[in-house]
Amino acid sequence: xxxxxxxxxxxERVPVSRQITPRPKQIVGNVALLDISKPRGNxxxxxxxxTLSQRLPDVNITRYVKPTxxxxxxxxxxxxxxxxxxxxxxxxxx
Amino acid sequence: xxEVMAAFELENLRGEQVTFxxxxxxxxxxxxxxxPTCKEVMPxxxxxxxxxxxxxxxxxxxxxxxxxxxxxNAFTPGxxxxxxxxxxxxxxxxxxxxxxxxxxDASGTVTETCIGFVRDEWQGLAQRxxxxxxxxxxxxxxxxxxxxxxxxxxxxxxxxxADRLRAEAENSPIRARxxxxxxxxxxxxxMFDQGFSDGLPVIPPTPERVLRMLxxxxxxxxxxIGVMAPNLGEVTIEKIAINAVMAGCKPQYxxxxxxxxxxxxxxxxxVHGVMATTMGASPVIVVNGPVRHQIGMNMGMGALGQGNxxxxxxxxxxxxxxxxxxxAKPGETERSVLGxxxxxxxxxxxxxxxxxxxPMHVERGFDASDSVVTVFTMTSGPSLIVDQESRSxxxxxxxxxxxxxxxxxxxxxxxTNCLLVVVPEHVDTLMRDNYSKADxxxxxxxxxxxxxxxxxxxxxxxxxxKPATAAGMSKEDLEKMMPKFRSEEDIHxxxxxxxxxxxxxxxHGWVTGSIGSIPVSRKIDI
Lengths: 94, 526
Known about the structure:
The structure holds 2 protein chains of 2 kinds. Chain A has helices at about 40-55, 75-85; strands at about 5, 30-35, 60-65, 85-90. By secondary structure, chain A is α/β, with parallel strands linked by helices. Chain A has a domain at about 30-90. Chain A is globular and about 50 Å long. In chain B, helix 5 (about 160-170) packs across helix 7 and helix 8 (about 235-245) packs across helix 12. Chain B has a domain at about 10-170: Glutaredoxin (3-Layer(aba) Sandwich). By secondary structure, chain B is of the alpha+beta class. Strand 1 (about 5) of chain A pairs antiparallel with strand 12 (about 180) of chain B, so a sheet runs across the interface.
């Protein structure tokens, strides 16, 4: 994963803020459930999937799994989730 | 070449971490797979490893991971090549060539060095080592090896890597916070999102670019040249360099940017007021002296406009320093009611060679051979003074005086100053009558003068002297002639512009004197 680094042009008195995607008011479209491979994360996501399917029958749910919780998700997986999903729910669990 | 080899830890092809601690006799060799000489020395390294590995530490370091694997397959050496694809160990060892072989002692000191392949040197080193260790000579037919082969360039000095390695090294002059941009983020969008930009794209200030920019000055990167209002952020040479990269400057412009930032950081210049005023003020930067030619500034046709990199990016860099280090942002502490396109950038050079008078920097006390920046606070302009008809100096200077009376509003006398840019054709008209700068200033004051009574607010224009104040004035005072400017010194004059066109221009000032902004000049440290 190549990361470009830049140097802060400011006086560094405030932390760097990262923008987050705007939060829509309604859940529609594709929801990704990401299991990060921590123990029992899948159990949590199973229950979530049941609940979401009942409450939001029109939403399309896809399950994804990270190979290991100890490392960032592989580039390919992140691109796949980004391309195919409107929402992501990530299960930490333990 | 290194005198002492620093300790390191690298991974070998088997995935094991291998250390070099520099506390015992060792051989350290740097190689690179795509170098033919390195391939030729591989059998030598294999033989030396076989002979000495039991007695001393041997570290063979390769500069590319794939290359290391290829060498391992081709030669199946008794050692596993260490991966220095990050090139940090190669850089720290200060090698320029591969192969480079170092023999080091128990203090890490390099006692022998072989660069490239000179057979006698390598053989001599091997024989001395056998002697020292009292073990048989290396099992190798040295005569079958070429007598001499030049090495190849180390990847650590390759121009595409060297700046990065210097920036990342422990003695790097860079101290600014590093911000990692995610691989899926667009760096240009990220810079906008962070609020680092004036609204136009900025060049990402990577450590490599900033290091190259710092090459434009001899000054220490951490030298603090002042504090920048409103945040009173400390301005270091490094921070100026970062913003200069973002603005698009070349390294040779950096000394000009530094001098301009020094000038606006002064109490006299009062950048806090200049930014905070609702009037829409901003610095105009005028450059004088030899640096104008050295960095290719525009002082002729279109000098106040776009199209010249030095003019455009020096002014922009100064503005970005004000924004990013000073923290002056529109809508926050920058409160201009309308703003002003000159707030993006406003910098030009004086055409001294076309100026029959003293150039601005000499008039302000510098030597003609000095390179100098002068910062002037403008609120409007460049506003044209159109006169294509006047054929005498008096008549033209009269037009200039009458036009300048319009600054702010015609009744606003004693209110501000101006920076007058006289174009070559107007210079020629003035010189028909051998006008001096003093003559021009005097004529401007003369032709912009009115009796005080004409400056009183009325139903045509409520601006000017308050009627209540005027009511308290003597008849004599009301008849007193009032020039536009409080003093002739408030009329700053430079020459610039193309050879054709009788259109001089003026930058209108802001509040003058110690309660406003005083023009400041600084010598450029080239």
